[in-house]
Amino acid sequence: MKEPLLIADARLPDGTRVDVSIVNGRIDAIGPDLRVENDVVRENGNGALLLPGFVEGHTHLDKTMWGMRWYRNEVGPKLTDRIENERRFRAQSGHDAATASLALARAFLQAGTTRLRTHVDIDTDAGLKHLEGVLKTRDTLRDVLDMQTVAFPQSGMLKREGTVTLLDEALRAGADVLGALDPALIDGDPVASLNATFDLATRHQKPIDIHLHEPAEIGAFTLKLLLDRVEALGMQGRVVISHAFCLGALAPRERDPLLDRLALLNVALLTTAPASVSVPPLAACIEKGVTLFGGNDGIRDTWNPFGSPDMLERAMLIGMRYDLRRDDALAIAFDCVSHTAARGCGFADYGLHVGARADLVLVDAETVAHAVAARPVRKLVVANGRIVARDGVLVEGV
Hints:
The structure is a single chain. The chain is an alpha/beta fold. The protein folds into 2 domains: 5-52 and 352-393, Urease, subunit C, domain 1; 54-345, TIM Barrel (Alpha-Beta Barrel). It has 13 helices and 17 strands. Strands 6-7-8-9-10-11-12-13 form an 8-stranded parallel beta sheet, sandwiched between helices. The protein has a 5-stranded antiparallel beta sheet with strand order 5-14-15-16-17, covered by helices on one side. The chain is globular.
């Protein structure tokens, strides 16, 4: 049983001053001048902007070197170079997914993220070692961080014999989602690769989140095959396509029919809004009714020296990549790491309403757009009804 909590005098994004009553980890009431029992824990919001807890839609907690020594990146330019380099480094260095994932997960919490989807490498050399480490982190933080784990075959489904069997074991061991990677360019056989993916997901009744880096026409071909399987197997609303670079490289006459099918089949898209490659078109996705949400991808690892566990920063980068300048447009960027991300990942009971899980962030900002642009220190972070961070610092015991 959690202690009841009252956050007094906070300000909703529309400017309304409210109190928020939290009971048993849920928002019990929200409105001005709430009357509550005397034994409630009280926090004064002092008019700070009240936001829902942030959602990280795509990261790789198991790979990170957050808080560790700097990794000198001298890897080659190809995707396969990065895959092999990472596998070699992790084996030789003894990189521990449990320690690494816990450090980064706590940093996410400190910055206001209360829901998170992480992809975890399932590897024929390491077996389920990385997943076991991340599941320890999920268990350690289970009361405050709602974490989904994706069993991710970083080398593809078919390229390394035994991967499908390991993925089967990973789903039995507690992974929430089945991952996949570039069926044409990595596996070399998109039909067989997708068949294996959907067969495994169907047997375990698990959703799918597939990395699709394949460019232009190749990516479009794979995407059509994938959508055919979603429709045939009734997996509407249970598939996410991460990256989907191809959709940013196609002409509208080729792209728009794919967007129409994505919307019809309720297949969501994830973007990290990278500056260096094409990205799915945000405006066209909104117009067509396609769910497009945001995430960081890897943070400070052998692939990438960049990144931060701050979803307001990711919203800012989404705003910059899509040239979002107006306040209402920046609110869309924030939605990509809040409401839309929760919907895309299937996180339930999300938001600032009665009955929602009490995941709240208070910041000194005038508007949502101001929060995205300025990325102020988090004055207060509440996760599942529990105060986990104050003034940018985790509270003791988290």
